Each structure stands twice: as structure tokens, then as C-alpha cells.
Amino acid sequence: MNVYVLASELRMGLVAIDWMLAVQIVNTLILFLVLRKILFKPVTAFMEKRENEVKSQFDAAALKKQEADQLISEYSHKIRNAEDEGKEIVRAAVQRGDKRMADIIKEAENKASEIREATQKELEQEKVKAINALKDDIADMAILTASKVIHKDIDGNKHKALIDQFIQEVGDTAWHN
């Protein structure tokens, strides 16, 4: 009858308060404590450990990202400095090239001036040589003409000296005019 009463009470949805309920409560408490000792604490410790690992990985990743951002900033700064240095090097090279070009032009102008002066001196010397040769030719022709006119041989050296003196006194004025 006891089973029948329990079955009827269960069918009605009521729980009987007796020693079975106390045993079930004690069993549930023991099961909870055992599971807590065996399962909950290790699982909780594992979860906390895993959570700490994930946090440390996130912290490490954030630190790495911060380091990467800092490196990017440093590298971009170095690139800008390198670009500025490159521009400065190019500017200095252009200035050196311009200076060298000016020096070469000046040197060429000086050489051209020297060549002109040397050529002018050479022309003057050639002119003097030509005038002297012409004077000698005139003196020789005058001696030849005078000797044919007189029909006798005149001392060439004395005659040439007389003609040179005449050319010097009269001829220089005529040649230069």
C-alpha cells in the first residue's frame, strides 16, 4: 500500500515528505560536493587559466601592435629623412655641377684669350718678318738697279747700308701710313 500511496501521490503531483526526500537531498548534496571537488574546481581552474592565457595573448598582441605602430612611425620618419637627404645630395651635386661648368667655361675663355694673344703676337712677328723681307728685297733690287745704271759693280754692303738707312728714315713712315 505504501507503493500505491506513493504512486497515487505522484500522480497527483504532490511530493511526500518522508525519509526518502531527506535521502535524496543528502544524495544531491553529496553529489554536488563530489562534483564540485572533482569536476567544478578543476574545470573552474582550467577556465580561469585559459582566460588568463587568452588575456595575456591579447595583451601581448596589443603590445606587439603598439611596437609595430612605433616601428612604422620610426620607419616613415627615416624614409622622410632619407628623402630629404636625397634631395639635399641632389641639390649639392647640381650646385657642384654648376660651379664646375662655370669653371670650365672660365678656363675655356682664358685659353681662348691666350690663344688669341699668342696668335696676335705671331701675326705681329710675321708682319715684322714680312716687312723686313720686303725691305731686303727692295734693297737688293735697288742695288741691282743702281749697278745696272752705273754699269759697274758697287760695293753691295755699303750700298745696302745706305738703302736701309734711307728706308728707315723715309720708309717707316710710309709703311705705317
UniProtKB/TrEMBL annotation:
Tree of life domain: Bacteria
Coiled-coil residue spans: 65-125
GO molecular function, one term: proton-transporting ATPase activity, rotational mechanism
Keywords from the UniProt entry: ATP synthesis, Cell membrane, CF(0), Coiled coil, Hydrogen ion transport, Ion transport, Membrane, Transmembrane, Transmembrane helix, Transport
Membrane topology classification: Single-pass membrane protein
Gene Ontology, cellular component aspect: endomembrane system; plasma membrane; proton-transporting ATP synthase complex
Subcellular location per the Swiss-Prot or TrEMBL entry: Cell membrane; Endomembrane system
Alphabetized CDD domains for the sequence: ATP-synt_Fo_b
Keyword Coiled coil: yes
The keyword Plastid appears for this protein: no
SUPFAM superfamilies: F1F0 ATP synthase subunit B, membrane domain
Transmembrane segments: 12-35
Function: Component of the F(0) channel, it forms part of the peripheral stalk, linking F(1) to F(0). F(1)F(0) ATP synthase produces ATP from ADP in the presence of a proton or sodium gradient. F-type ATPases consist of two structural domains, F(1) containing the extramembraneous catalytic core and F(0) containing the membrane proton channel, linked together by a central stalk and a peripheral stalk. During catalysis, ATP synthesis in the catalytic domain of F(1) is coupled via a rotary mechanism of the central stalk subunits to proton translocation.
Family: Belongs to the ATPase B chain family.
PANTHER family: ATP SYNTHASE SUBUNIT B, ATP SYNTHASE SUBUNIT B', CHLOROPLASTIC
HAMAP family associated with the record: ATP_synth_b_bprime
Subunit structure, as described in the record: F-type ATPases have 2 components, F(1) - the catalytic core - and F(0) - the membrane proton channel. F(1) has five subunits: alpha(3), beta(3), gamma(1), delta(1), epsilon(1). F(0) has three main subunits: a(1), b(2) and c(10-14). The alpha and beta chains form an alternating ring which encloses part of the gamma chain. F(1) is attached to F(0) by a central stalk formed by the gamma and epsilon chains, while a peripheral stalk is formed by the delta and b chains.
Name of this chain's protein: ATP synthase subunit b
Naturally occurring in which organism (per UniProt): Acidaminobacter hydrogenoformans DSM 2784
Lineage, highest ranks first: Bacteria, Bacillati, Bacillota, Clostridia, Peptostreptococcales
The encoding gene: atpF
